[in-house]
Write a structure and sequence with these properties.
Structural class: alpha+beta
Radius of gyration: 20 Å
CATH class of the largest domain: Alpha Beta
Strand content: 25-35%
Number of helices: 10
CATH architecture of the largest domain: 2-Layer Sandwich
CATH topology of the largest domain: D-amino Acid Aminotransferase, Chain A, domain 1
Helix content: 25-40%
Shape: globular
CATH superfamily of the largest domain: ATP-grasp fold, B domain
Largest sheet: 8 strands, antiparallel
Number of strands: 20
Strand order of the largest sheet: 15-14-11-12-13-16-20-18
């Protein structure tokens, strides 16, 4: 059995996908959730709070390199803002995914949006100098993730100066969407299209809260998204599981960014052996065959459950979370969360995206109420 390391802010999804596809897994993340440790043969802590610690990450990879039996490591969420850490880690243990150079390039806003323009791909207007009228403009950090870095320029306390790797982008209407794909450096196969769950949290208007899919798109829209995926794949030599975020307004597709690593939406496509497909694409250049005549798959969804108030989970509360239908990323007894911290995640399925969205919302509220009333 091939031994594979997976690393992310939360590595549970990667670890489960790898184990499901027949790999032995070592997990590196910030939480050490119960279900992560159940599926992994070993767990390493690589940070605290929501921040990856480079020193801890490199120390863990050094330990794995010395073992001599780990085939490589897959970097997930949280590493897109650390191309230098990816390069240092790749020098210790083979990195299976986009190269550090590709990650740095595709997350460089000037290069990314210039590439979109060169290929005739629509995107919301961007600029690097503060607009004269702040209304309708966002401030973004190209190396951020999860939407926590996005602020409205007109919000109180948001300065006009750009943060490192920042840019201004015009706010635009549309449904937040994504395309999940597997790339081999030159071409890509799209696994499916998804609706994203996005909500406002305080002064942060677009925090990522989950994903629902696959959802159908009109043929013309699907062609535009496919053109964007294949264009950025070739331009930035993307490899493995990735996703492209876009806004859909009618039939208008406006591309926002690319996540050059396995996305959360991979959970919706587990039956397609996504981790095995990731490795084959990265190491052999093979792309998965996407069936065109298969019946429409059942719509699935997953959502992050963020705490609404401070919670200290004793053993009974941790067991209640674990027993709740569809819960994942299960916290250990003794975990303390503050408002806005991720508590766990929920998954469900249904006939339509709207039904799944409703079920996730109801389940999240009911779980939080159960924990808050017994705390």
């Amino acid at each position: 059995m091939t031994l594979l390391a997976v690393a992310a802010v939360s590595a549970r999804l990667l670890a489960e996908a790898a184990a499901r596809d027949g790999f032995e897994v070592i997990a590196l993340d910030l939480f050490g959730d119960v279900d992560t440790c159940e599926v992994a043969s070993r767990w390493f802590s690589i940070g605290t709070g929501l921040k990856i610690d480079p020193a801890l990450t490199l120390a863990a990879l050094q330990v794995l390199a010395h073992r001599g039996d780990v085939s490589g490591w897959v970097a997930g969420s949280g590493f897109e803002g650390h191309p230098e850490l990816l390069a240092q880690g790749a020098a210790l243990l083979p990195l299976i995914g986009c190269t550090p150079e590709s990650v740095a390039a595709v997350r460089d806003p000037a290069r990314f949006f210039d590439t979109l323009a060169a290929h005739g791909i629509d995107h919301p207007p961007v600029q690097w100098t503060p607009p004269a009228d702040t209304g309708g403009w966002l401030v973004k950090d190209a190396q951020g993730c999860g939407g926590w870095h996005v602020r409205r320029l007109s919000s109180p306390g948001v300065a006009g100066a750009l943060p490192p790797h920042g840019y201004f982008q015009r706010e635009q209407p549309g449904t937040p969407m994504s395309a999940t794909f597997v790339a081999n450096g030159q071409d890509a196969a799209i696994l499916g299209f998804n609706e994203q769950i996005v909500f406002a949290f305080g002064a942060r208007p677009f925090v990522y809260g989950g994903v629902i899919g696959p959802v159908p798109l009109a043929a013309a829209v699907a062609r535009r998204v496919s053109h964007a995926v294949r264009s950025v794949t070739a331009a930035f030599s993307l490899r493995g599981l990735c996703s492209l975020d876009f806004l859909l307004d009618g039939e208008r597709v406006s591309v926002l960014e690319v996540n050059p690593r396995p996305p959360a939406s991979m959970a919706l496509y587990g039956e397609q052996r996504v981790m095995a497909a990731h490795l084959r694409a990265c190491m052999l250049g093979e792309l998965p065959a996407i069936p065109t005549t298969a019946p429409a798959p059942r719509v699935q969804g997953s959502a992050v459950v963020f705490a609404r108030r401070p919670l200290a989970l004793d053993e009974q509360a941790a067991l209640r979370v674990a027993a709740w239908p569809g819960t994942h990323d299960l916290p250990c007894a003794g975990t303390h969360v503050e408002p806005g911290d991720p508590l766990c995640s929920l998954s469900t399925a249904g006939a339509t995206a709207e039904q799944v969205r409703t079920l996730l919302s109801q389940g999240r509220k009911a779980l939080l109420t159960s924990l808050e009333t017994t705390a």
